């Protein structure tokens, strides 16, 4: 299907393809020496001299180089930020966006997304609009121009043209856990994505939509959906149901602990798929299963070619000599660019010590991010698969309401896969109480991670240690003792004690100096902060080549 673009305006962006090249050096800049005939750019032309006695105008012969900051990677990246149109009229003047819209309409017809019909009496048609997005790679270069026809789902009415809408997506903790397991077990890591994923979902409700602009033969007609479309409230649920039913034919079953994780056990090994909307990670030790999976998926969906995992949900996955680095340099820089902090000075800590905070102090975090732009988590291939944790709490650390902060993190071997820093919902009367609440939260996360890792092929055969620096909290967990200061946390006490008896975990006392979870609950000076962060296996990776 080809749209007839009738907009008479000229191309507003005649050269939108901008491949990234190394930043220009002073040697690449053409000389700005002006000839005598050229005149000055910022002054009136010199009066013409009599032809019989020409006068030479003195000009500097110095080659003017651009400022040094223009060779900076971040500045160069910002200068080449691409434009995404906001309206159909704007996009229709650009051949690249025209082709993207044509490809989208071809996909709609290929999947038979709708039938043209007249609107029945008593029914209403949902509006639609075009949404444009430039998909980039981890280094910022253009991968492709995407145009999606999106339904104005906010006009739908519950019970009339939609009902259930929930669809699961992979949790980032699951992503990091799967990457850690695959790297330690030396499994291959691949990524694939489905083109126009939502168009594959089967729609059960009766929904009508107005035709897109300039759609041929659409006068007095509407489109009745056969399949889902981006923007419909039930579209994500319909797509996930379709994908689940298709991979089930190949023997995949969803995990009970993350519904977006699909597992296939065969006599030759295990194959895992982790799905986030239309992007997926494929890994495992079943070489034949991984080889045949893309061919099977291509029989049901239009797929992009399988590729080695390098960029997933804003995570840049970079291989090193002994493992992989996970970083978010591009995502972080985009955040700085939108906030106007690309030229700001860096700081060594996210927040200052011993100062009264105000809302604008959050901007200091952006300056800290700029200074740690290329820092990432290191996942070692020589690590073990044993899970262990640290849990801590800062008693009454928030001056306005004196509520405490819970902090914990989990390591799979030496790979950081889960962490949390959250203010507790109640005011505690003792440090033991807040530490115990932190232990209860960490225990809940521990149980879920143990079950998830079992599904990923990394079962925890021994109890998982949780390091705690409060001896009173450890004593309460091991002894059936209650008194007035602890009876209001009795549920947490029974919860932790039960799983201690089941050997799912055991508690280890650790000194406050060695309590690494402190970084999630308190502010520290630069030296101490750097020490704690390095123990979390966070280090600087190489910046991308542009």
UniProtKB/TrEMBL annotation:
SUPFAM superfamilies: DNA/RNA polymerases
Residues in Reverse transcriptase Ty1/copia-type domain copies: 112-352
Chain positions covered by the region annotation Disordered: 38-59
Comp. bias intervals (Low complexity): 38-54
Entries under InterPro entries matching the protein: DNA/RNA_pol_sf, RVT_2
Domain of life from the UniProt record: Eukaryota
Pfam families named in the record: RVT_2
Recorded coiled-coil stretches: none
Name used for this protein in its record: Reverse transcriptase Ty1/copia-type domain-containing protein
Gene source species: Fagus sylvatica (Beechnut)
């Amino acid at each position: 299907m080809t749209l007839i673009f009738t907009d008479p305006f000229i191309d507003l962006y005649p050269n939108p393809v901008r491949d990234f090249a190394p930043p220009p050096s002073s040697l690449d800049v053409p000389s700005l020496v002006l000839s005598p005939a050229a005149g000055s750019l910022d002054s009136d032309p010199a009066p013409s001299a009599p032809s019989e006695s020409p006068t030479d105008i003195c000009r500097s012969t110095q080659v003017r180089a651009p400022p040094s900051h223009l060779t900076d990677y971040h500045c160069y990246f910002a200068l080449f930020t691409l434009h995404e149109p906001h309206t159909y009229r704007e996009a229709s003047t650009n051949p690249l966006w025209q082709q993207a819209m044509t490809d989208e309409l071809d996909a709609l017809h290929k999947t038979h997304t709708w039938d043209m019909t007249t609107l029945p009496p008593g029914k209403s048609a949902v509006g639609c609009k075009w949404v444009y997005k430039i998909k980039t790679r981890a280094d910022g270069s253009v991968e492709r121009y995407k145009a999606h026809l999106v339904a104005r789902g906010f006009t739908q009415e519950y019970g009339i043209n939609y009902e259930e809408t929930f669809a699961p997506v992979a949790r980032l903790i699951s992503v990091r856990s799967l990457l850690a397991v695959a790297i330690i077990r030396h499994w291959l890591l691949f990524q694939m994505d489905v083109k126009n994923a939502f168009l594959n979902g089967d729609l059960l409700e009766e929904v009508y939509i107005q035709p897109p602009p300039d759609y041929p033969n659409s006068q007095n007609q509407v489109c009745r959906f056969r399949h889902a479309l981006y923007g419909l409230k039930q579209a994500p649920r319909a797509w996930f149901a379709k994908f689940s039913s298709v991979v089930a034919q190949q023997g995949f079953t969803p995990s009970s602990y993350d519904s977006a994780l699909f597992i296939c056990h065969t006599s030759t090994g295990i194959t895992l798929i982790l799905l986030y909307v239309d992007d997926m990670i494929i890994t495992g030790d079943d070489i034949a299963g991984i080889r045949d999976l893309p061919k099977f998926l291509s029989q049901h969906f239009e797929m992009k070619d399988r590729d080695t995992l390098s960029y997933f949900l804003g995570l840049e996955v970079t291989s090193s000599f002994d493992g992989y680095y996970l970083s978010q340099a591009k995502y972080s820089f985009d955040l700085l660019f939108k906030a106007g902090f690309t030229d700001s000075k860096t700081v060594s800590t996210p927040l200052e010590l011993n100062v009264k905070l105000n809302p604008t102090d959050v901007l200091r975090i952006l300056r800290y991010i700029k200074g740690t732009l290329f820092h990432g988590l290191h996942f070692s291939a020589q690590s073990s698969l044993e899970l262990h944790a640290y849990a801590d709490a800062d008693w009454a650390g928030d001056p306005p309401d004196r509520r405490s902060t819970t902090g914990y993190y989990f390591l799979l071997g030496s790979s950081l896969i889960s962490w949390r820093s959250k203010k507790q919902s109640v005011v505690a009367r003792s440090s033991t109480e807040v530490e115990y609440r932190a232990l209860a939260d960490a225990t809940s996360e521990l149980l879920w991670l143990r079950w998830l890792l079992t599904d990923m092929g990394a079962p925890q055969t021994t109890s998982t240690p949780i390091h705690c620096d409060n001896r009173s909290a450890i004593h309460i967990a091991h002894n059936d003792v209650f008194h007035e200061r602890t009876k209001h946390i009795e549920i947490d006490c029974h919860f932790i004690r039960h799983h201690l008896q089941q050997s799912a975990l055991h508690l280890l006392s650790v000194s406050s100096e060695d309590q690494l979870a402190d970084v999630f609950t308190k502010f520290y000076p630069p030296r101490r902060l750097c020490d704690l962060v390095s123990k979390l296996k966070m280090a600087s990776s190489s910046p991308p080549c542009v």
